[in-house]
Amino acid sequence: MTARRFQVEIEWDPDDHVWVTYVPALGHLSTYGDTREEALAQTREAVLGYLEAAATSSLPVPDEHQLDIVEIEVALP
């Protein structure tokens, strides 16, 4: 079995009280869960579904790209 790695952004949504994930390489595929672990498990299932649908439809799957998260400072007026 072959494995692929994808970078996943994960953040807490204080309004909905859930962890939200995004997979930038797959068009920001997104899912959520009540815990970080549940959100990541849902993400694995969603990525697998995406890859299976792409294979069935002969659609290309984009190569993973490096994601950099940087912090900037903004001076308030």
What attributes characterize this protein structure?
27% helix; 3 strands; alpha+beta; globular; 3-stranded antiparallel β-sheet; Double Stranded RNA Binding Domain; 77 residues
User: In CATH terms, what is the architecture?
Assistant: 2-Layer Sandwich
Total number of strands: 3
Distance between the termini: 55 Å
Instruction: Say what the CATH topology is.
Output: Double Stranded RNA Binding Domain
Provide a concise account of the structure shown.
With 77 residues, the chain is an alpha+beta fold. It has one helix at residues 36-56, and strands spanning 9-13, 18-23, 29-33. It has one domain (1-77): Double Stranded RNA Binding Domain, CATH 3.30.160.250.
Question: What would you say this structure looks like, in words?
Answer:
The protein is globular. The protein has one helix at residues 36-56; strands at residues 9-13, 18-23, 29-33. The chain has a single domain (1-77), classed as Double Stranded RNA Binding Domain (2-Layer Sandwich). The relative contact order is 0.19. It is built from one helix and three strands. With 77 residues, it is α+β, with helices and mostly antiparallel strands. The protein has a three-stranded antiparallel beta sheet with strand order 1-2-3, with helices on one face. The mean pLDDT is 91.
